[in-house]
Amino acid sequence: MANIRIKEDAGVDNLYWVNLDGKNLPATRNLTPGISYYQERLIHKGKIEVRLWDPYRSKLAAVLMKGYRELPIMSGSKVLYLGASTGTTVSHVSDLVDKTGLVFAVEVAPRVARELVMNLVAKRKNIVPIIADARYPHLYGAVFKPIDLIYADIAQADQTEIALINSDMFLDNGGYLFLVIKARSIHPLKPISTIIEEEVIKVRNRGFDIIHVFDMMPFDRDHGFIIARKIR
Ligand code: SAM
After folding, report:
1. Per-residue pLDDT tens digits for 45-85
2. Who is most buried in 66, 94, 95, 169, counting CB within 10 A?
3. Residue 222 burial class via C-beta count within 10 angstroms: exposed 0-12, middle 13-18, buried 19 and up
4. Which of 93, 108, 178 to mutate to test the pocket of ligand 1 (most atoms within 8 A of CB)?
5. Ligand 1 closest atom vs CA 112
6. What range defines the domain where residue 221 resides?
Protein backbone atom coordinates (compact mmCIF):
# COMPACT_ATOMS: atom_id res chain seq x y z
CA MET A 1 0.00 0.00 0.00
CA ALA A 2 1.42 3.40 -1.03
CA ASN A 3 2.32 5.89 1.68
CA ILE A 4 0.44 9.14 0.77
CA ARG A 5 0.56 12.55 2.45
CA ILE A 6 -1.17 15.69 1.10
CA LYS A 7 -0.52 19.28 1.99
CA GLU A 8 -1.81 22.60 0.72
CA ASP A 9 0.68 24.84 -1.12
CA ALA A 10 1.65 27.76 1.12
CA GLY A 11 0.98 30.45 -1.51
CA VAL A 12 -1.21 29.24 -4.36
CA ASP A 13 -4.98 28.70 -4.03
CA ASN A 14 -6.15 25.18 -4.89
CA LEU A 15 -2.60 23.86 -5.39
CA TYR A 16 -1.54 20.87 -3.30
CA TRP A 17 1.56 18.72 -2.89
CA VAL A 18 1.13 14.98 -2.67
CA ASN A 19 3.91 12.97 -1.14
CA LEU A 20 3.68 9.57 -2.75
CA ASP A 21 6.17 7.08 -1.34
CA GLY A 22 8.64 9.90 -0.61
CA LYS A 23 8.20 11.75 -3.93
CA ASN A 24 6.52 15.19 -3.96
CA LEU A 25 4.08 15.78 -6.83
CA PRO A 26 1.82 18.75 -7.60
CA ALA A 27 -1.95 18.33 -7.63
CA THR A 28 -4.95 20.62 -7.92
CA ARG A 29 -8.20 20.55 -5.99
CA ASN A 30 -10.75 18.93 -8.27
CA LEU A 31 -13.52 21.35 -9.23
CA THR A 32 -15.53 18.34 -10.44
CA PRO A 33 -15.15 15.66 -7.75
CA GLY A 34 -15.17 12.10 -9.05
CA ILE A 35 -14.15 13.04 -12.59
CA SER A 36 -10.65 12.61 -13.99
CA TYR A 37 -9.77 13.79 -17.48
CA TYR A 38 -6.59 12.07 -18.67
CA GLN A 39 -6.52 9.09 -16.33
CA GLU A 40 -4.78 11.19 -13.68
CA ARG A 41 -5.07 9.78 -10.21
CA LEU A 42 -7.65 11.21 -7.80
CA ILE A 43 -6.60 11.37 -4.16
CA HIS A 44 -8.72 12.23 -1.12
CA LYS A 45 -7.95 14.05 2.08
CA GLY A 46 -11.09 14.37 4.19
CA LYS A 47 -13.63 16.23 2.06
CA ILE A 48 -11.00 17.43 -0.39
CA GLU A 49 -10.27 15.61 -3.63
CA VAL A 50 -7.17 16.46 -5.62
CA ARG A 51 -6.04 15.47 -9.12
CA LEU A 52 -2.39 14.54 -9.52
CA TRP A 53 -0.75 16.84 -12.08
CA ASP A 54 1.61 14.94 -14.37
CA PRO A 55 4.84 16.88 -15.16
CA TYR A 56 5.46 14.63 -18.17
CA ARG A 57 2.08 15.66 -19.64
CA SER A 58 1.97 19.33 -18.58
CA LYS A 59 4.85 21.79 -18.79
CA LEU A 60 3.29 23.95 -16.09
CA ALA A 61 3.48 21.00 -13.67
CA ALA A 62 7.07 20.48 -14.85
CA VAL A 63 8.12 24.02 -13.85
CA LEU A 64 6.50 23.51 -10.45
CA MET A 65 8.53 20.30 -10.10
CA LYS A 66 11.61 22.31 -11.06
CA GLY A 67 11.09 24.59 -8.07
CA TYR A 68 8.94 27.47 -9.37
CA ARG A 69 6.70 28.57 -6.51
CA GLU A 70 5.17 32.03 -7.06
CA LEU A 71 2.51 30.89 -9.53
CA PRO A 72 0.31 34.00 -10.03
CA ILE A 73 -2.86 32.05 -10.89
CA MET A 74 -5.38 32.50 -8.10
CA SER A 75 -8.96 31.85 -7.31
CA GLY A 76 -10.76 34.39 -9.53
CA SER A 77 -7.95 34.89 -12.06
CA LYS A 78 -8.73 35.32 -15.75
CA VAL A 79 -6.39 33.31 -17.98
CA LEU A 80 -6.14 33.39 -21.78
CA TYR A 81 -4.79 30.01 -22.81
CA LEU A 82 -3.39 29.66 -26.35
CA GLY A 83 -3.00 26.11 -27.69
CA ALA A 84 -5.49 24.38 -25.41
CA SER A 85 -5.30 21.03 -27.20
CA THR A 86 -7.53 18.43 -25.48
CA GLY A 87 -7.18 20.30 -22.19
CA THR A 88 -4.67 18.48 -20.00
CA THR A 89 -3.10 21.66 -18.62
CA VAL A 90 -6.28 23.71 -19.10
CA SER A 91 -8.07 21.34 -16.70
CA HIS A 92 -5.60 22.11 -13.90
CA VAL A 93 -5.65 25.86 -14.62
CA SER A 94 -9.45 25.63 -14.40
CA ASP A 95 -9.07 24.01 -10.95
CA LEU A 96 -6.71 26.80 -9.84
CA VAL A 97 -8.91 29.74 -10.93
CA ASP A 98 -11.91 28.02 -9.37
CA LYS A 99 -15.58 28.96 -9.74
CA THR A 100 -14.95 32.70 -9.69
CA GLY A 101 -12.23 32.66 -12.37
CA LEU A 102 -12.28 32.06 -16.11
CA VAL A 103 -10.09 30.28 -18.63
CA PHE A 104 -10.48 31.36 -22.26
CA ALA A 105 -9.15 28.31 -24.11
CA VAL A 106 -8.08 28.93 -27.72
CA GLU A 107 -7.52 25.97 -30.04
CA VAL A 108 -7.30 26.01 -33.84
CA ALA A 109 -7.66 22.31 -34.74
CA PRO A 110 -11.38 21.48 -34.97
CA ARG A 111 -11.08 17.79 -34.05
CA VAL A 112 -8.93 18.53 -31.02
CA ALA A 113 -11.27 21.36 -30.03
CA ARG A 114 -14.26 18.99 -30.22
CA GLU A 115 -12.57 16.67 -27.73
CA LEU A 116 -11.75 19.65 -25.51
CA VAL A 117 -15.40 20.69 -25.50
CA MET A 118 -16.90 17.22 -25.03
CA ASN A 119 -14.47 15.93 -22.40
CA LEU A 120 -13.70 19.05 -20.41
CA VAL A 121 -15.71 22.18 -21.16
CA ALA A 122 -19.01 20.31 -20.90
CA LYS A 123 -18.19 19.42 -17.28
CA ARG A 124 -16.86 22.81 -16.17
CA LYS A 125 -18.46 26.23 -16.20
CA ASN A 126 -15.27 28.29 -15.94
CA ILE A 127 -13.80 27.44 -19.37
CA VAL A 128 -14.79 29.39 -22.49
CA PRO A 129 -13.71 27.48 -25.61
CA ILE A 130 -12.59 29.57 -28.57
CA ILE A 131 -12.05 27.69 -31.81
CA ALA A 132 -9.79 30.10 -33.64
CA ASP A 133 -6.32 30.77 -34.93
CA ALA A 134 -4.44 32.62 -32.19
CA ARG A 135 -2.72 34.70 -34.87
CA TYR A 136 -5.95 36.71 -35.12
CA PRO A 137 -6.89 37.68 -31.56
CA HIS A 138 -9.16 40.52 -32.76
CA LEU A 139 -11.54 37.79 -34.00
CA TYR A 140 -12.04 36.07 -30.62
CA GLY A 141 -15.07 38.09 -29.59
CA ALA A 142 -15.68 36.30 -26.29
CA VAL A 143 -12.49 37.41 -24.52
CA PHE A 144 -12.71 40.49 -22.34
CA LYS A 145 -10.08 42.47 -20.46
CA PRO A 146 -8.34 42.57 -18.10
CA ILE A 147 -6.64 39.22 -18.54
CA ASP A 148 -4.33 38.40 -15.62
CA LEU A 149 -2.18 35.87 -17.41
CA ILE A 150 -1.61 34.58 -20.94
CA TYR A 151 -0.40 30.99 -21.20
CA ALA A 152 0.90 30.20 -24.68
CA ASP A 153 1.82 26.68 -25.77
CA ILE A 154 1.61 26.80 -29.53
CA ALA A 155 4.07 24.65 -31.41
CA GLN A 156 4.60 26.99 -34.36
CA ALA A 157 7.64 28.73 -35.84
CA ASP A 158 6.07 32.12 -34.93
CA GLN A 159 4.90 30.99 -31.46
CA THR A 160 6.54 33.94 -29.66
CA GLU A 161 5.05 36.53 -32.02
CA ILE A 162 1.60 34.93 -31.60
CA ALA A 163 1.94 35.18 -27.81
CA LEU A 164 3.10 38.80 -28.11
CA ILE A 165 0.25 40.01 -30.33
CA ASN A 166 -2.20 38.47 -27.85
CA SER A 167 -0.32 40.19 -25.02
CA ASP A 168 -0.46 43.55 -26.86
CA MET A 169 -4.20 43.16 -27.13
CA PHE A 170 -5.21 41.72 -23.74
CA LEU A 171 -2.52 42.30 -21.07
CA ASP A 172 -2.27 45.44 -18.98
CA ASN A 173 0.95 46.40 -17.19
CA GLY A 174 1.54 43.88 -14.42
CA GLY A 175 -0.05 41.05 -16.41
CA TYR A 176 1.90 37.83 -16.89
CA LEU A 177 2.99 35.90 -19.95
CA PHE A 178 3.85 32.21 -19.57
CA LEU A 179 5.43 31.17 -22.84
CA VAL A 180 6.30 27.59 -23.68
CA ILE A 181 8.99 27.50 -26.37
CA LYS A 182 9.01 24.46 -28.59
CA ALA A 183 12.52 24.98 -29.91
CA ARG A 184 12.40 22.52 -32.78
CA SER A 185 9.39 24.30 -34.29
CA ILE A 186 11.60 27.39 -34.57
CA HIS A 187 14.83 25.87 -35.89
CA PRO A 188 15.72 22.23 -36.58
CA LEU A 189 19.44 22.40 -35.77
CA LYS A 190 20.39 25.36 -33.57
CA PRO A 191 21.22 24.53 -29.94
CA ILE A 192 18.07 24.63 -27.79
CA SER A 193 19.67 27.13 -25.38
CA THR A 194 20.43 29.56 -28.25
CA ILE A 195 16.85 29.38 -29.53
CA ILE A 196 15.46 30.03 -26.05
CA GLU A 197 17.83 33.01 -25.55
CA GLU A 198 16.69 34.52 -28.86
CA GLU A 199 13.01 34.20 -27.87
CA VAL A 200 13.76 35.75 -24.45
CA ILE A 201 15.22 38.81 -26.22
CA LYS A 202 12.07 39.17 -28.37
CA VAL A 203 9.87 39.10 -25.26
CA ARG A 204 12.06 41.57 -23.35
CA ASN A 205 12.12 43.97 -26.32
CA ARG A 206 8.32 44.07 -26.35
CA GLY A 207 8.04 45.54 -22.85
CA PHE A 208 8.36 42.53 -20.53
CA ASP A 209 10.44 41.93 -17.46
CA ILE A 210 11.80 38.37 -17.66
CA ILE A 211 11.20 36.67 -14.32
CA HIS A 212 12.34 33.11 -15.00
CA VAL A 213 13.57 31.00 -17.88
CA PHE A 214 13.46 27.22 -17.46
CA ASP A 215 14.63 24.38 -19.59
CA MET A 216 12.29 21.42 -19.27
CA MET A 217 14.81 18.71 -18.43
CA PRO A 218 14.27 15.97 -17.32
CA PHE A 219 10.60 16.15 -18.33
CA ASP A 220 11.02 17.28 -21.93
CA ARG A 221 14.18 17.79 -23.94
CA ASP A 222 13.33 20.32 -26.66
CA HIS A 223 11.36 22.96 -24.78
CA GLY A 224 11.93 26.11 -22.79
CA PHE A 225 9.53 27.99 -20.54
CA ILE A 226 9.62 31.78 -20.14
CA ILE A 227 7.81 33.55 -17.30
CA ALA A 228 7.54 37.29 -17.94
CA ARG A 229 5.62 40.29 -16.65
CA LYS A 230 4.48 43.24 -18.74
CA ILE A 231 6.02 46.49 -17.57
CA ARG A 232 5.30 48.90 -20.41
N1 SAM B 1 -1.05 23.23 -23.89
C2 SAM B 1 -1.45 21.85 -24.10
C3 SAM B 1 -1.34 21.11 -22.77
O4 SAM B 1 -0.38 21.37 -22.01
O5 SAM B 1 -2.23 20.33 -22.43
C6 SAM B 1 -0.65 21.21 -25.23
C7 SAM B 1 -0.63 22.10 -26.47
S8 SAM B 1 0.02 21.38 -27.94
C9 SAM B 1 1.75 21.36 -27.65
C10 SAM B 1 -0.15 22.71 -29.08
C11 SAM B 1 -1.57 23.00 -29.50
O12 SAM B 1 -1.60 24.28 -30.13
C13 SAM B 1 -2.15 21.99 -30.51
O14 SAM B 1 -3.36 21.47 -30.02
C15 SAM B 1 -2.38 22.84 -31.77
O16 SAM B 1 -3.51 22.45 -32.53
C17 SAM B 1 -2.55 24.23 -31.18
N18 SAM B 1 -2.22 25.32 -32.12
C19 SAM B 1 -1.19 25.36 -33.02
N20 SAM B 1 -1.23 26.51 -33.71
C21 SAM B 1 -2.27 27.23 -33.24
C22 SAM B 1 -2.81 28.51 -33.56
N23 SAM B 1 -2.25 29.28 -34.50
N24 SAM B 1 -3.90 28.94 -32.89
C25 SAM B 1 -4.46 28.17 -31.91
N26 SAM B 1 -4.00 26.94 -31.57
C27 SAM B 1 -2.91 26.47 -32.22
Report:
1. 889 999 999 999 999 999 999 999 999 999 999 999 999 99
2. 94
3. middle
4. 108
5. 14
6. 64-230
